[in-house]
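Technical appendix A lists one of the benchmark inputs used to test multi-chain prediction within the project. The record comprises two sequence entries:
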Amino acid sequence: MDITRFKSKRSYLTGIITLVILVGLVTLPFYGSLYNAILVTTILMYAILTVSWVLFSGLTGYMSLATAAFFGIGIYASALFLPTTGAVLPILVVVLIGGLASGVIALGVGALTLRLRGIYFAIFTFGLVVLIMELLNWWELSVNKILGRYVMLVDNDYIFYTMLVIFVLVILTTFFIQRSKFGLALRSIGENEEAASHIGINVTMVKVITFAISAFFMGATGAIWATKLTYINPHVAFSVLFSFLPVLMAIFGGMRNIYGPVIGAVIFAYLQETLQTRFSEIYMLSFGVVLVVAIIYMPDGITGLVQKTWRRISGGKRART
Amino acid sequence: MPESIISILDIAIGGLLLGGIYALIAMGLSLQYGVARVLNIAHGEFIMIGAFSTLSLYTVVGINPLVCLAIVGPVTFIIGFLLQRTLFTRLRVTTPNPGAFEASSLLATFGLMFIIQNFALLGWGADFRAYSYLNFGVNIGGAIFSANKLVILGFSIAIGVGFYMFLIRTRIGKGIRAAAQDPSTASLMGVNINRVLALCFGFGAAMAGLAGVLYSMRIPLNPAMGLQFTVIAIIIIVLGGLGSIPGAFIGGLILGIIGELVTSIDPSLSLAAYYFIFMLLLLVRPKGIFGK
């Protein structure tokens, strides 16, 4: 009885904290400075990429490096439909198009490649990013005779709220998927794919659908992110960094629960925004060091580390709950 | 000779000259991935380090680039050996299964890539730099190739064949081949597995370093040049079959010829062509051409 009371108390607390953070974020443009709003927009962008990466790769164990591809497709959707000469379609529709285009491509890529095991899948998805980048670069240079494209200016608050809505949606989606039968199927694929298919899970379908859902959020984020970039070219839109950063953030934050990736993304995006402009080389250098150290010493990420330390401090009394 | 035959010959020889260096790079990665199971994203950074060291040694100290082979080779070998002994051995022991080890070691090498690349940026700056060595034409069958390219091919083949002989003729080579087939059984048969894996990683790094020394003779250098070589090496080892040393060598030559062919049509498409072939191969025959 004690345990149940403790549990409900804790979920009550989590609910309140979530609500406070959400209210704080929604009202941010009213009290925060413009710089803060832009900073939080960047943090939200990384958080969305990381959470949607974990949604597929964290649960199934297939390491996807295609994040940059889906993100870039979203960015180019904006470049096509929101040029500086005036919006062809409403911004929210373009965001939806960016998401859907990425999702559809993910369906195709997933159906083709998700039978590749382990490292092959990682290599293939990495190759996909660079292939799209090279082809697009060639197409823009030799057919359209341009280096890059301009995207129209959009109000900062508008970008911020769109990003926030996508963030809330991706959190809710992850939350409900993890709690559903579908999430259990995903988890069992991650633990043992053959066993999962033997107990009647359509492993290919579950994997492909999840891959497409995660790609949808990446594409939608890319589409709204493009309006903040204003100038884009294939090398900016399909930078492989966007494939690796979410992985790093997820590992750093820990993938055991939903807030781990968010915490990892918040810490890293903040560091990046504050350090990168002034000490670019030092930032990238420390990025590498942190990545190596995190992989060796914190296999469960910073949340795992905190939980372990907490358990040690509280004398292991709560270890079984 | 008719025009078309000359141009085919041009492409074939040019492809071999490019492929020799590719083969060397891929053999290094093949050792690291095929035996030590580390898909080393930082492989190209060792090439970059080798190339920049040669540039500095030649232009500042005045040491002949071919002598640099004897300096850079051992140094990169020691770096690779120590990396495997410390970082990757620890990862191998702490990760629960081989799949998890491959994923986390891949990410660790990605971190390494950033560390090496940004140290190079701090030390050598972001500009493209080049030097000129053995840069005169040699006539082969009516086509003219620069002498340094021929020297590069000669050394690549010598290093490749030499290493292959080492693998099949010596006791350590036998240990490496055994470890490539089955690490745990090999260690039961008395192969010191930690030492063999460290040797493999060291040899892989040394080959990248040597390739860097050779390649610095023919291209302008930049600290960001590494990743494209890593990618090319990954494509080749998949093409030749993961872990197969002769496969990596022949795959390198094939990719060189393909690269030269596409370059003769449209130079900006060569990387895209590599990827296209690569992804097609992954879908149709993921074991590679020479894979078992």
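Chain B touches chain A at residues 39, 87, 90-91, 94-95, 99, 102-104, 106-108, 110-115, 117-119, 121-122, 227, 231, 234-235, 238, 266, 268-269, 271-272, 275-276, 278-279, 282-283, 286 (CB under 8 Å). Chain B is about 75% helix and 5% strand. Comparable benchmark entries are summarised in Table A2.
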